[in-house]
Amino acid sequence: MVNQAELLWKRIIEKGLNVETGFKEKLNLQPGAREEDFQLIETALGVTLPEEMKSFYRVYNGQNWASEFECFVRNLTLSPISEIIDNWKFIQEEFDPDEFDDDLAADIGTELKPVLWNPKWIPIAENGGGDYLCIDTDPSEAGSAGQILYFWHDWGDRSIEAKSLFEFIEICLEEEN
Fold first, then answer.
1. Residue 122 is part of a domain; what is its CATH number?
2. Predicted TM-score (pTM) above 0.85
């Protein structure tokens, strides 16, 4: 039986093929993640991964940037688990998790905690310019665990894009090319 993650991947690939021949090959998709991979990231980041993320990564463990590649949605490349850990460590070194101010709290809305960086955010995709799509495993009381946000490296604004990874991908699939 095909699960929702497999169906989403199939739709991502079909949408891309409508625009470009050989789209699937140009995604440079990596073989699916294993339970050991999930244990590694949970230990390294100190989080419990949402089941949707695990399901999505069981199909493909991100993309390889080694050669020419296509973005899986929008202008984003899906990071493999090893890259998620590296990106998370890099961001940890760049931003003080406790740093926030009143202006920031006004800019990010009520679903997120008013911090520049939360170590419980999982940077699963990036645009190559230092900006990340993250899964929030530590939302504010008004937010929901697993919500998706953009982390802009040079801008305090943090925007919630969807309540879950699957919802985010559905939104992207409905967008025009």
1. 3.40.1580.10
2. yes
